[in-house]
Amino acid sequence: MIDLRSDTVTKPTVGMRQAMADAEVGDDVYGEDPTVNRLEAMAASLLGKEAGLFVPTGVMGNQLSIRLHTQPGDEVIVESSAHILRYEGGSASSLSGVQLCPVQGIRGLLSSDAVEAAIRRPDLHTPPTTLLCLEQTHNVGGGSVYPLETIRQLTDLARRHGLALHLDGARLFNASVKAGVKVAEYARFFDTVSFCLSKGLGAPVGSMVVSDAVRIQKLRRLRKVFGGGMRQVGMLAAAGIYALEHHVTRLADDHANAKHLAQLLQAMPGVAVDVSAVETNMVMFQVPKSSKSTEHLLKDCREAGVLLNAVGERSFRAVTHLDVHREDVDAAGRIFARVFASG
Ligand code: TLP
């Protein structure tokens, strides 16, 4: 089975499993897991921040940060298709009591004008805008990459209005490899940055939040409050260390494979795909109206050996990752040609 549903599906490699088995562990709630401590220091240093916190998921990294930066009743600006808005189960409202203000971007990327218009001016009637969250790369935007200069403009604007800044950098390393910009260069504009070890980097679980030491101390307490205090998780942290040491530069292969898949799709009659929009490891494409429903097309693909996710009516997302090789992309291309031509 060729699994293009997400880069979350990667399985730990032999080397990673060995590193996990060899990991020294201790109780991390006491701060005594040496491998977790090493991962947190490593993440902080890579992103140019004082401290790091290991969290079970990307959602938890985002939600702890939102809780840290806001008070109930505040408003948080996010792009209108942001993961925080669409795919985190409404947790910003239920866990932090904030309201999200969706602002339309282009391929998920916000402009300063749009954000400026959305920032509330002090008024008795309106919720105070206190936080801006950006997403790098942008998932629903198709793995799109914010240029550093746009981030600088957006964060300057937010600072002028006194907003805190959080980056949902679930796939920050994809952006870094694509743009040739160090992750610390992106991170320096934000108060908190979360990134995932369990996506393209190939760890089975885990995300990081990095910030200054005072904020990380507060986040550590909030992680406990949210039920995310973990114990002997050095084995999982070892997978994260292995991922950061071995799986960063290879993300370029995933990006080349995604581009290749987009080119194969472009050659199929009726399939709509913008090859130039494929910047990292995601391909968004639409197939022509046909007698078959979206679910039917997904089922045909699955029975032929490819798993995909639908993102709308006859709209699909294919994601390349460490368990997808060039020959798998070619095989998926042949399957798509057959399924979509007969649809
Ligand atoms: N994204 C998943 C699904 O939840 C949609 C995927 O398959 O792409 N931020 C961004 C930008 C994400 O894409 C994701 C996961 C998360 C946060 C949450 O990470 P986890 O799943 O670890 O909580």
Q: What is the straight-line distance between the termini?
A: 21 Å
Strand proportion: 15-25%
- Which kinds of small molecule does this entry bind, naming each only once? ligand TLP
Q: What is the mean predicted local confidence, pLDDT?
A: 97
User: Counting H and I runs of at least 4 residues, what is the number of helices?
Assistant: 14
CATH topology (level 3) name of the largest domain: Aspartate Aminotransferase, domain 2
The main sheet orders its strands as 2-8-7-6-5-3-4
Structural class: alpha/beta
Named at the architecture level, the CATH assignment of the largest domain is 3-Layer(aba) Sandwich
Tell me what the structure shows:
It is built from 14 helices and 13 strands. With about 350 residues, the chain is of the alpha/beta class. It folds into two domains: about 10-245, Aspartate Aminotransferase, domain 2; about 250-340, Aspartate Aminotransferase, domain 1 (Alpha-Beta Complex). β5, α7 (about 150-160) and β6 form a beta-alpha-beta unit. The two termini are about 20 Å apart. The mean pLDDT is about 95. The structure holds ligand TLP. Ligand TLP binds near residues 57, 135 and 170.
